Amino acid sequence: MTELIDNTNFLDLKSCDPEDVTLRTGCKFDKSKNQYVIKIWGRSYCIDLNNYEIKPVGSHVKTYRDFLYLFILYYLMKSKNIDPSGTWVSEKDITGGAAFFRGPHTIPTDVIIQKFGDDIALFKKECNVLGGSAINLADVAFAFQITPSIPVAVLYWQGDEDFPSEAKLLFDKTIEHHLPLDIIYALAVEICHAL
User: Fold this and answer.
1) Do 158 and 36 meet the contact criterion of CB atoms below 8 Å apart?
2) CB 25, CB 13: distance < 8 Å
3) Are residues 16 and 49 in the same domain?
4) In the chain, which residues have pLDDT < 50?
5) Looking at residue 127, which CATH number applies to its domain?
6) What is the pTM of this model?
7) What are the Cα distances from residue 33, in Å, to 23, 85, 149, 182?
8) DSSP assignment of 83-130
9) What pLDDT does residue 159 have?
10) Do 98 and 175 belong together in one domain?
């Protein structure tokens, strides 16, 4: 792995009860290989506890650095068996989020705006390719089922002569029960760059 993921994260996951992990997350565990396989955002990933690595299952899967892998490790270790509430909140509405999500932890929605500009049709097309479901927010918005318990929405407003285009991420209100703020940030970075 790279500098983002320390081997202690794998050791922490290794110390978890595999039966508990599989029950909470719906992943599979191969005891003989000491590997978990989990589906994240519609793609499968193998977490190899013996070799301290995570690999996509199949080809043509790209991630932004190791932010997604960090999310996967923490999701397996810490997530709860809680259904989504159906209530969308911004990162600032998450407990502690107003102080955390600024400066170096500002969610990089600017990369979404740089890619799509005023091209709403292209944004819709890319969201559909990534398995998004259209929702009735902003000028156009899509919800992505990252895991069964963690949906994330991406909202887009088309710019005009007075205001530039704007993008925003929303999270289900329950996300703070699954992940600490820094891992929510890691997931948000991955989503922005995946788009």
Assistant:
1) no
2) no
3) yes
4) 1-2
5) 3.30.310
6) 0.90
7) 19, 36, 27, 30
8) ---S-EE-GGGSTTHHHHSSGGGS--THHHHHHHTT-HHHHHHHHHHT
9) 82
10) yes
